[in-house]
Each structure stands twice: as structure tokens, then as C-alpha cells.
Specification:
heterodimer, A: 430 residues, alpha/beta, 18 strands, globular, B: 41% helix
Chain lengths: 430, 1266
Amino acid sequence: MIQRKNLYWVFSLLLMNCHTTPSKSVKHRTVYVNKEGEQYVLYRNGQPFSVKGASGYTHLEKLREIGGNTIRTWDTVNLAAILDEAQRNNLAVIVGLSMPVSAYLDYFYKDTAKTAAQFRAFEKTVRRYKDHPALLMWCLGNELNFTWKPGYSAFYKTYNRLLDMIHATDTNHPVTATMPNLNIVQVMMIKWKVHDLDLISINTFGKLELLNDQLKWYAWLWKGPFLITEWGAYGPWESERTNWEAPIENTSTKKAEHYQQLYTQLPQHNPRFLGALVFYWGQKLETTPTWFSIFDEGNASTEVVGVIQYLWTGKRPAHRPPHIRYMLLNNKGARDNIVLPSGEKQTAELLLEDKPADSIKVHWQILQEHWFGELQQAPLTMLDTVLAAGNELRLTFKAPVKEGPYRIYAKVMDGYGNFSTANTPFYVVE
Amino acid sequence: MAAPRKAPPPSRRDLFAIRLMILIGIASMLFFLYFLLNPLQIGYAPFYWLLMAGIFFGCLRVLHEWYHYFYITVPPEPPLTKQFTVDIFTTFCAGEPYPMIVQTLEAIQAIRYPHTTYLCDEANDPYLEEVCRRLGVNHITRTLKVDAKAGNINNALKHSSGELCVVLDPDHVPVPEFLDAVIPYFADEQIGFVQVVQAYSNQGDSLIARGAAQQTFQFYGPMMMTMNHYGTVLAIGANCTFRRAALDAIGGHAAGLSEDMHTAMQLHAKGWKSVYVPAVLTYGLVPSTLSAYYKQQLKWARGTFELLITTFPRLFRHFTWRQRLHYFTIPFHYFSGVIFLINFLVPILSLTLGIIPLKVDMLSFALIALPFLTATLGIRHFVQHWVMGEDERGNHIVGGLLLIGTWWIYILGLVYTLIRKKIPYIPTPKDDSEPDSWRLNIPNGIIALASAGAIVYGLYTDWNPYAWVMSGIALVNCVIMLFNIGISRRLHLIRFKNNHETVSTVLNYAAALKLRFWHFRHDLYTAIRKFALTLLICMFTVTLLFMAAASKLPTRTGKPAFKRDIFYSGIFSPSGNNGLTSMRQIQDDQSRYNCHFNIISLYIAWGDEERCLVPRSLLDSIYDNGSYPMITWEPWAALFKDKTLNSDQGMLARIASGQYDAYLERFANQVKELNRPVYLRFAHEPDNPFYPWSASGGNTPEAFKSAWQYVHRFFEQKNVYNAVWVWSPWKAENADAYFPGKAYVDWLAVTALNYGSLNDSSKAYSFKELYMPFHRLPLFNTDIPVMVAEAGSLKGAGNQDEWLDNTLTAIEDQFKEIKALVLFNTAADHNLPAGTQGAVLNWQIDTPGVFFTAMAWYHARKWHGLSAPYHAMPVLPSYTAAVLPRRKLPDNIRGVNYEKGKHWYRNLHALTRRTVEKDFADMKMLGINTIKRTGPGVYDRNIRAVARQLHMKIHYSFPAPDVSDLIADQDKLSKAADKIVATVKKLKNDSNIIAWNISDTIWQQLEELFYKPTLTYQQAVYTAWLRTLLSHIRALDSVRPITMDVRLNSDVENVVARLQQELPAVSAFGLIINGTDTSGWGATARLKSPWFISQVQPELYAKMNIRSDHVFLTNWQDIHDRDYLTFDGIADHWGRHKPSWALVEKLWGQRRLQQTLSPVKILRPAALTSADSRLTYQAIIDQQQWQLASRFPDAGIHFEWYLVRTDEWGNPVTMERVGSGPSIQLTIPPRPSQYRLYLVAAKGNDVVTAYSRLNIPLLYKNGRPH
């Protein structure tokens, strides 16, 4: 019995390798992937289309301005407006359809009422937007984890039903699914368990430098086309931590350097590579409000925008934001594991590379460490802690009263719509 | 003598049952050992390990037994296929009785299967030669006498030629079928010998014979049957049939003291197989005198030890694994002598030295030991299916006792082996003609004497539960020794018995009784056998469940108090317009609609007239109806005759200035005389312009509040405590402005009247609409109960029934704070809404039946306070007396609460004499001169003895009984009082006791359990009980003061005054300062009674600016019960010094030592504490600034981490050590919020501690920043 099962595995693997693009003509479609020799080409409206864009759905004009052609959403909130705005800016959109990760079996995938409701909702969405000119492809779920573990058939069943529905409803656009880094087991599972996914998408950060090699190593197992849907700065999970497990964030200056370096690691010359999206085109809270955010809550941007512009167009912007060297708290850095007594006065200091221009402004604030992201609550801003009136590179502040981990943030604005950030985690003991 | 039937083979079910039982048994054993090996419990280490050695040995023995029961089998009997020539040998030595040998020879000749018989006569006895000739037996003798019995048989082997040879002991009488049962097995060429059961015919000769026989039952049954399966059958000297070829292969019968076992070893080593036939085919004799028995045991002990150290290693590599195990373990049976000696010595030493080997909480110990004990007994009884008959079933107690009494023989055997001393082979003497030498009893006598002496000495010097346990063990040992001495002197005993008629009668009667119970006992054994598995599973599960669940139960202090929910229905139903409810009408309604009203409302105006006073007869009839009256007490001025008083203008301010004191006093006295609770709704609706005591009469909210407080205080000063104060605002928006304060209000009240079209808006309002504004006020969400003092819907203002029904539904669903509803059922209301025309309003309900029934139903589902409905309200105990002459406490009490080991049976701390001595000596060093301890308790004797010795004074406390409803539990109260009085009587001559104390604060706690007026009754019962008790104590003890503890809070002044008034025997009050709460500290200056501090944390005491000469610190040492922990001691759980130790030493002691350790804290990870995740916690240490402790590896600080489980209210319940070192990786347990981390940083004998939740506080609560 067991042996027969193993044989089935081997057989399936062999079959997967033999799998090629379906022979029937797809060329009438709006968007499709075509295999030309070893090369995969994404066609959009009959023209080859190399994805060069950003993960995010705001600041579209800016993206167009610096040479991008594609954006991406994770869900369908405000989708009509986003698609229209993208169309105005001549940008293509990868539309994300949001699904719970595969581990939500009892809470979701085994609950037929919930999956049926989801099915109806997605069907309605696909029908409504399938003919929108900005639509590039559908992305069904983000990092769902196509696990090899037993007991997940409810998930695969739901997934395949949705995939079949999208293909049946919208014959003009491909469907993709994402995974964190290149995980060959998950690729195999997609091949084995999932019906006709058009291409695979990869979200990758610090491990981007391994991607070229991995593609080579696993080529005997998988030779399909792929897209990089997220690339960017080293994630909190890839960073050093303090003794209380708070990840240490680089300054925005350092992050801009990383973007430039990581860009060179993209598998530009791989014949299966369909393009890449930089992460995160907008402002979002992930561990900190600044970790991945290329913009702030307004229209100001970090140095990353300039770097991307340079990489795509070869032209540098007129103004560079102030370059931060590092931040000190009581003359210590984040790696010194700073523990402060509750409610007492402290000093923080920001060191810039160049003599600061007169026009710069500094904004300081202290937030709770955001270790409870799963609880869907934002970290509180600790009011009454920042004593000096800002705009200075040096700050006297009062440590929060309640015990726990916090982080002090500094944002330096140059008056031209650019800003730089730095922060330092610290721990208060009552 | 009927041959017992051969045991049937075990069925599959039997095997399953026995194996399951063994597995459960092993689990129980591991459980038991795991518990015992907890290093926390080691008392005095050498004794502990001695004790553990004994327990380990016992466990190994049990395992050895279970190992054999696991594969219990009965060998199948092959058919007789081959004939053999057979020789039967028996031996004779000089001195053995002739009749025995003759009987044996005759029986041998009667064996049916053809055979040749040989008598190997060592004595060459002519008489026997003659007998042999007569019986046709070959008589053989020898001249070269080597190798004792073995040599004798080998000699006979030379003279014979049979293919098989049977060795029969001369005392073993075979049955005629003997060979028929044995021969068939030899068809298998590999079989070297076949052994049959050794059974005895003389068990009844003496207790020694019985015991010796009992020792073999289990062995010759189930054990040997399994040895048959394992290929390890032991040849027993008697009844063994050998194949000659096999014996020849090993050079004849092997020699030695245990020649039988030796032969079997040799044969097994040569690869011969063996068979055990579980059938009784011979009956032999068992030693029936102690000397014979001892000789036999010594021979075997010496012989088997010899085999272990000489033969076993030589043959080791020839054995199978099972044989190796078998021949290695068998001799250890005789090692038990050493273990028995340990078991004698440990209690003796621990009693005489006052040292305990093991500190356990006895409850857990009993719980843990129970499944193991059940398993051992259950399995043993279960396998008695396979002993040789009903006679052999039972507990085999005599056998066990005899075994224990043989301890020194076994030790002797061991010693002889070690020193290589030879003992001669003598056949075990079997007849009981010789009397035992008394010298054989010397070792047992010594142990008996030493045990008895240790018990007397130990208990005299150190009276504690551990000493009781040790004494118990010593007593059992002593009795066992005496039993062994007794059975050896049986001839003397028989003579004694025969000479004393009474003794003889009693013993005969006892024997007859025992015989009568034979069937009962054996039925019981059968039942145990049958249900052993079920019983074991039940016991195991129940214990596990209990261990798991018991810790989830609320701890003794844990459960927060919840008030008993009540709902009172009430009515205002006047017949005229005098404002008084007509009781006749009420009674009519009650009987007509089968309902009952708890509150009867009436309205009384202030004034000089008769109707302005308490209508005594009406109130009496209300009480008789089982109801409380509610007087709405309206401060109208018009009815005062005096011109200065009868103006309504600014009335409230004038009340507060004392102008109406005369009336107040009259009224207050009348209220007091009622002696039963009465609701007093004074100056209701002070914001309703209709009434002159509102702003319309020139009154302000401030004036209202001060008038209210004034009246309230006035009553209190007159000791009128039976009034229940009902504060009743008119509009919700004014409520806060008019609220006189929590201390002055017992109930909140609202009016909810639907005027329908007469309302300003001309529309009807539901109750919900009327009440909702009040419900939204924070004031109405405290725990003050709310009453709807007037509820009704005007006739003609819509559907009345529906309105009332909706009211009840709204109260049930939404307004849980409403605890009473009074129906406004009057036809003549003169209080008209502003701008309304007309004379009176009619609020009477048209169809009272519907509503009364609904209300009765609703009300019946709630507790209604005190008495059952329809019973008259009881009278409060009335009491007035002056404070008795105060007795003074000694000056300058520097005390500490000493509650260590209070719950002795569930506590790790044992207050042995040594422990108490050490604690008191330490206290003296800190300058502590008095302890406060709750009694009576098992350690009282030790504590008082040491207190006398070290001059420590004792403030002796009594807890009040644990009663939640004093009225319902009067029985418990009187029992508790008896116990306290008895204790005082017993201890009053102890000069170290300085005072008696009532330590509980029940009187205050009752407020958390009951609403007034039930509270009034409960408190009255409590004070009445205490009053009687204290006067008893005072009468018994003419010197010592009595003190009483109260909690220090803002109300303490009133509480103390009230208690002092009701309890004149109290000489001083002890203030309990909880945690760091100092509210009410200012009130101490105003206390009129003497007071002292009964509990205060040392840190707080050091910080307080007010010193008292009489102080008891909270706790001497952290408490560690099995389900209750505290961390409030000066010493930690292990007796090390916390920072407060140095603090107390600095305050009071002679030395001025500085605590050397810096404070520590726990650095928690910034991560969610979800179950099963692994998180790292770090110790941080205050070195000018907080730093990771791991940065100071050379500081010599030792870190211990404990995971503390709390109950759902956060009270610590149990703790478990989870690591050491400056940081730990912790696997987060399920329900992390119920756990805490406790960090101890220790250096030498000093510790600092930190205690923290597992998670970092979120700063959010209910989704909002907190």
C-alpha cells in the first residue's frame, strides 16, 4: 500500500516534468504567457510585456513618472477606483483576491458556508472586472502555503474550484499564486494538486541573492515561468534582534543602499523571468510603520524612490533626502539592548552624514513595540514622552511609565518632499 | 486429603487483564517514584536516601513479580507416548522420624507407574533396612560421605540404571498418579527435568508452618508457571524428576547448600530444558518451629548467595538472557534482610534525633501512593486464580510477617557468604518436638524495644505529623517483632492460654469468628480477583483526575465574593389617603393571587403629630407578614407646631443645623425599638419642585447632602443600625449632584411612573424609557442595589398590563442592578405634574391578578434574603452594655505572623522542633519578640514548647468558622465556639500566650455577600455569636486581653466603633493592612478603641510615618501548600532571606547588615505568548541601570526560575521549577494568562525575587488604549 503510494509520487513528478504549455492556441487572449524556445514571454494586447513595477496601489503617477508599468493589490477594496486610476496612468494591475492561509482549515476551508460565500463573491468580482483594460492578471491568494502535509484536501479543493471558476469566467487573463521565496516543495505541490495555474509568483527579500542559484538547482524539477511580486529591504525576520526579540531596523539611508544592491540580484537574464515588483509602494505598518514603507502617510518619499528611478531610467532625482549615519540613545545603539527606568529623562540623537541643511525638519515620536500585530491593533503612540519641541537632531524625552518594549522614531524631512527615517528599540522597566 | 485441581490456563481475556494491570501498575509506580524524587521534598538527605533505597528495592521486587505474571501460562500436557524406566530415590539421615520415612516409602511403592525405589540411607539404619526389605525397596548406603544430600543421591545413581530418576524428600508423600503426570513430558528429548508443585500437609501445625507455607503459594503457582514459559524453572530439592542422561552430562547431581538450584543452573547451562507441572502430586512438611525455619532459611540464603557469587559468573555465558536475569535476581530475595533493617532503623533514628527524612504534603502522598498500592494488591489477588486451590488465596499476612522477622537470618546469610564461612548441610528439620531457644528472639526483641523506646521519646520531645507517621511505622515494626517472638513461644502461649480461662475464651471466640469469616474473606478475595482491573482503572483515573482537577479548584482565599442575588417585590396600596398601606388589603391580595410582598411601602411626614411618628402596630403587622416596611420619610414642616420649625423655607439646612433634633431623636428611638430592619427613604425626590425640600423651598444640593449625612450620623450616634437608607433622586441628570456618598447610602431608588397623556410631551413612556437615563449613570453601575420605589402606569395611559409586563421583562433582561420593585397602587395621588388640572391621580391596576402572578413568578426565582415568605421577620438581638474594663497588651510588640505549616497535611513545611527552634532563634536575631499564630493546630505543642524555651510570646488567634450564610449555618458556629472555648481552657495556663485574637474579618466580608437588610441580620448573628463566645473566654481567662482583627479601609472608624459597641469584651483591634493600600490610615488617629497593626508588609511599615508599638508583620515565611502559595514572607519558601529580612533587622535587630543583592526583574520577550511557543526570558539586574544579568557571570548569583500557576482570579496555586541561569527558554503553557514567572536570584542565604506575568502588558483593554 505504502509502496504504491510512493510510486504514485514518483509518477506524478515525472508527469509534471513532461507538462508543457497547452498546445491549443492562446493568442487571441488579452494577456497570456507564451513559450518561445527556452524563453517565456508575457503578451499583453498582442505585445510582449515585461513587468516592471511596484507592489502597492497608491502614488501611481509617481510610478509612471519614474518608468514603472505595473502595480499590484492584495485584495479588492476600492478596486474599481484603483483600476481606473491605473488606466489613467497607463499602468497594468495584478489584482489580488484575498484568501485565508491554508492552515485555517476548521475556521474556513472546512466550513462550506464560508467557502461558498467566498466563491460567489469572487465570481462576482471576476465577472465585473474581467474586461477592464488595466487588468493584467489575477493573483489568487497571497503566500497561502501550499503545504505537503496531510489533511489539507479541503484547502486544495476550495482553491481549485476558485481557479476553475476564474479560468471559466475570464478566459483572457492568467492567474498566479505567490509564495515566500522559491520553495520547490510548494512549487511541486502546486504542480501536483492545483489545476492549471498559469505562472508562479515569488515574494522574496533578503533571500533574493539565492534565487538565481535556486532556479538553476531545481531546473530539473521545474522549468515554468515566474514573476517576482515582492522584492525589497531585508525583512524583520531576517534582521538582528534585541534581547527582547525586537528586530533592529536599518536607517532609510541604509535601506536605499540595500535596494540598489538587491536589484542587481534579480534574475533579469533568466528566460523564465517575467518581471518584478518592488515592495512596498506606499505606507504600511509591518513591525514598524517605516520598515517597508517607501512613502509616508502623505506624498513624501524615501530615498528608495530615487534609487528605483535611477535603476529604471538611469536618471537621478534633483534632491536627495538627508543621509542618516545612525541614531543613538544615551550614546548607545539598538544592538546594545537599551533598558530604561520607567518615566525618567533620556536623550536621543541622530547623526547625519553631511552637515544638515537649514531647511531640514526632524519629527520625533515614541511608539509601543508592535509585537502584537496578530491582534489587529496598532501600536499606541506614547504621548507626553517627547519633551523637547522637535525639529532638533537631539531630543530629550521621558521614558514611558508602563513596563514594556518601545521604539523611538526620528523622521528627517528635507523640504522637497523627501524624508529619511531611523528608529531604536528600547525596553522600559518599572 | 483431596488433590486440588490443576489450575486452568489463563484465557486471552485474563492475559489482557493482567497485562493491562501490570502496565497501569508500572505507570503508577513511576508516578509514585517521580513524586517521591522531587528534590524539594528531601528532608535529611542520608535518611531520605536510606528510605528511598528501601522503596526502590520494594519496587524492584514488585517488578520482578510482575515480570513473571506478564506471561503466565500453564504448560500443555502431552500424551504418554514413550515408556521409561524410572528410579525413585528418597533419603534418610539419622534423627529423622521413622513414621515419616515409612509413610513415604509406602506411598512410593503405591505409585502406579512401574518404577524401582531406592532408599539412600545415610545412617545405614537396621530398622529401615528391614522396612525396605518388607516393602521391596532397594536399601543403599555409603561410607564416603561427601556432598551431603547431593552426594547421597549421586551414590544412589551409581547403583541404579533407570532412564529417569525422581528425587523425593523423605517428608514428601507422593500420590499414586505421580509418575503418570510427569513421565509424558520426557517424550521431548531436550527436557532435562520436570518439577511439580511443592505442597504441604502440616500447615496447621503452627503459625510458623502456616507462614512458611504461605510464603510459597504465590511462588509455586503463577511465578513458577511463568518461569516455565521463560525457561527458568527452578528445581526444588523435592519432587524433581531428572533424566539420567542430563544428570550424567553435568557429572551427577550438583552439590551445595542449595543443591537443587545449583543442579538446575548446571542443567540450564548445558542447554537442557525444564518443565514445571502446576499440579499437586506430593504433600510434604514445612518447618513448624522457628529454629527449624531459621535453619532452613539460613541454609537457603547462604546457599543462593554462594551460587550468585561463585556459580553464576562461571555459567553466565551459557545462559539465555532470561536465565541470566533469573539466576541473578533470585538470591536478592534474601537481600531483603538488609532492607528490613533499614526500615527498622529509619523511624527509630528519625524519632530519636528529631530529623525527618522526607517532607511531603500528606494529601498528595496518599493520593499518589494509592494507585500503586491498589495495583500491587490487585495484581497479586488477580493471579491467585493460578494458585493451587482456595486455601492458598488471601493476603498471606502471616507469611509476610514471618519473612520480616527473618531479617537477621538473611543478613547472617549474606555476612557468612561475604566472609566465606561455611555452614554444614543439615536436612531441614520438620517435626516440632523441640522447643525453640529463646535466644533466637534476641535480635527481634532488640528492634521491638528500640522501636517502642523511640516512639515514646520521639513523640514526647517532638509532636508533629511526621513524628506520628514515623511512630506509626515504628509501632508496626514493633508489633511485627512481637508477633515473631510470640509465635516462637507458642508452647508458652498455649500453656498461658490454657491456664487463664478468660484469655482462652476470648481467643477461642476470636478463632471461631475468624473461621466464620473464612467464607466472607474468600468471597471478598474472589470479588477482588474478579474486579481487580476495574478497580485499578477506577483508582488510577480518579487519582489522575483529582490531581489534575483539584489544582483547578478555587483556592481558599481565591474566590472573589459575589453577592447573593435577590429580588424583592413590594407594594404601596393605601385604602385611604393617609399614606399608609392597608395590611388587610395586602393580605387579601396575597391570598387571592397567591403572591407575597417583601416590601410594604408607607409615607410619613415630619411633624409633631402622632401620624408623624412610626406607626408601630402597622409595622408589626408588616413584619408579621414576613415583609419589610419602607417609610418614605418626607420632611414637610407644616405639621410642626413650633413657629420656628413650621416653615418649609430652607428646611434642609435647618435640619443639618440641628433644629429638628428633638423630632429626630424621637423618631430614631422609635426606629430602634422596632428591632427589625426598616427601609428609610428620607427626603425623596429632592430635585422635584413639587416638594418644598427641593430648590423650590430654597434648598441646594449641598444642603440636601449635608442634611442627609446629618440625619444618617444622628442615627448612628444613637446606635440605630436597623435603618436601611434609601436615596431617591427624581431626575437622572441631578443624581450626581444630590448623591451624599457611598458610606451613607444602602439602596438607590428611582420613581418610574407613566403619566401617559399628562406627561409634558403628552405621550406615554415605557419603563425602559423612564429608567434608561439612570441606567447610564456610572453611579447605577456600582454594586449598590437599585430599587424602583414607585412604579406604575396611570389608569388610562395605555395598556397597564402590558406596561407592567414590559417592566418586569426589562428588569430581567437589561437592568440587572434592579433588586426591588415597589408597585405604586394608589387611587389617590395628589402629586400632580406641573400644569395639570384635576384633583387626584389613580394609579391602581385594573387586573392585579395578572401582574401579581407575573411578579410572584419572577420573584420566586431569586433568593429573597432571609426568611421564607409568609414567616414573620425575626427580631434582631438587642444589646446594650458598657465596654468592659480593658486589659492591656504588653508594651512594645514586635511581632510577625507565623502561619507556616498551618494546613499541615497539605504543606511542605513541617514544624518539627528543630525547625521551630531555628525560626524562633532567627526571629530573636531580627528583634521579633512575639508571634501571631492561628490555632488550634497540630504544631501547637512544639511551638509552645520552643516558645517557652526561647522566651517568645504568642498572640494566639482563632479563625472564625468558614460560613457563608450565618443564619443557615448556626450549627457550624456553635461547634466552632465550642472548639475555641476548649482551646482556651487547655492553653490558658501557658504564660507565653499574651492575648487571644479573633483573626477573621467576617463582619466586614459579609458586606460583600449580602445586601441590606439581609446583611443587618447576618451581621447581627455574627456579633451575637462573638459576644457569647468572647464573654465565655473572658470568664475562663481572667487576665488576657481579647483582640479582634479588622481590615483597614476608609470606613474603619465606623466599623471599630460599631464592633466595640456590640462587643464590649474586645480590648483592642488589630488592623490588617493589605498589600500597599493605605487608605484609611488617617482614620487611625480618630479610633476610640486601642489598636495595633495585625498585618503589614515590612516595606510598607518601614515607609509609614506613623509608628505603632504593636506591630505584626504580614508573614514570616512564604507559604507553600499543595494548592496555595504566597510570596509575602520575610523568608522565601526555602527559608532564604528576602530583602525585607535585612530591613527588619535594620529596624529592630541588633545587627545592621545590608542586603548585598541588587534588585532583579524579568525582561519579557516582545512576542505573543501563545501556547506551545518557545520564548526567551532574561533576568535583568539593577546595577545603577538595568542590565542583563548574563553580563555579570562572575557576580556569584544563582538564578532559579519557577512557573507559577494561578487560579482564574490570579491567586498563585502551584509552582514548578523551569530552569536556572540568567535566562530561560520557556515553552508557553496553554492558557498563558493563568501563569506567572517567579525569578529568584540567590547569593548565599540572601535572595531577591521578581514575579511577573508571561506577557508584556498590551496597554489596550477592550480594544481601547488602557
